[in-house]
Structures are given as structure tokens and as C-alpha cells.
Specification:
177 residues, mainly alpha, Rna Polymerase Sigma Factor, Chain: A, Arc Repressor Mutant, subunit A, 2 domains
Length: 177
């Protein structure tokens, strides 16, 4: 009886729930998935205990799922460096043996060093302050007498140069047989 009542309530409020979710997550596909998850969660809860005010419970469950989704998106976004283009993540090399890995790392470091040598003294200073010493854009801007926007643009350029160095094909000399 409780499940059939829930199905009636859910179907009657489906469009309203979908609009609410879509307004929160700004993506119809994700909103549909959250709507489906709402139905599953409420159905499971109904098997464990009765719900006195079913309609508000359904809406609150949907909102909570959307908020959880948005929090997860923010956490994920914070783990990515916004100064690198998304392609940089795709360029992560596959696992190698330790000897191959060490040789690859050495070649990569040589390329990165060559790229960093092409930087102006100010760009090198910005790079070291940001990536080595962990200073914020504002702290670097204050120290160098430039705007935080300039620091951000310079770092973006530097990171693109570094990315370019990592994308060049590596030539590996193979021993002759």
C-alpha cells in the first residue's frame, strides 16, 4: 500500500521534481539521473519505515541528492589545476618499469628545463614563487608590482610552454640487435 501511494505521488510530482532538479544542477541528463535516484532512495526508505509526509520527503530527498552532486562537482573541480587545459590530464603517461620511468623522467626534465630557460626573468620569478614556494597570485603580484591578472596570465603561458614540452615525441634509442 505504501509503495503504490508513493508511486502515485511520485508520478504526480515528476515534472515538478525534474524542473527543481534541473534548476539546481543545470543539466537535464543529470537531473533525470537524480530523479531516478530519488525514486530508488524513497522506495528503499519505505521498506524500512513509514513516511508520514510523503510529498515533502520526496522533494527533500531530491534536493539533498542535487546538493550532494553539486558538492562532489566542486570537490572535483578543486582538485584540477585551472591553469592547465583539460588535455593535460589526458597526457598522463601510462605506467612503465622503474628504469624506463627514470629515463622518461630525465628526458622530460631536460625538456622542461629547456622550456623554462626560454622564460623572461620575471616569468621565471613568477613560476618559482608560485610553483616552488606556493605563493598566491596576490602575494606574487604585490612582490613584483604587477596585477594579479598579469600573474595569472603569465602562469598560464608558462604552463602551456611546459605542456608543449611534454607533448613533443620522445625519441628513445634502442640497442641494436
Amino acid at each position: 500500500m505504501r509503495q503504490s501511494r508513493f508511486n502515485t505521488v511520485f508520478l504526480g510530482q515528476r515534472l515538478s521534481l525534474l524542473r527543481t532538479l534541473q534548476g539546481m544542477v543545470r543539466n537535464r541528463g543529470i537531473a533525470e539521473e537524480l530523479l531516478h535516484e530519488t525514486w530508488l532512495r524513497v522506495s528503499r526508505t519505505l521498506t524500512e519505515r513509514p513516511i508520514e509526509h510523503l510529498e515533502p520527503f520526496v522533494f527533500q530527498t531530491a534536493r539533498n541528492l542535487a546538493l550532494d552532486h553539486l558538492r562532489a562537482q566542486r570537490r572535483h573541480a578543486r582538485t584540477l589545476d585551472d591553469t592547465l587545459p583539460p588535455e593535460a590530464l589526458e597526457a598522463v603517461p601510462e605506467e612503465r618499469s622503474s628504469a624506463e620511468d627514470a629515463a622518461h623522467a630525465q628526458r622530460l626534465l631536460q625538456r622542461l628545463e629547456a622550456s623554462l630557460q626560454r622564460l623572461t626573468p620575471r616569468q621565471r620569478d613568477i613560476f618559482v614563487r608560485s610553483r616552488v614556494h606556493g605563493q598566491s597570485y596576490l602575494a606574487i603580484a604585490d612582490a613584483l608590482g604587477v596585477s594579479a591578472s598579469t600573474v595569472q596570465k603569465e602562469l598560464k603561458l608558462i604552463m602551456l610552454l611546459c605542456l608543449e614540452a611534454t607533448r613533443q615525441p620522445m625519441t628513445v634509442s634502442k640497442p641494436s640487435s
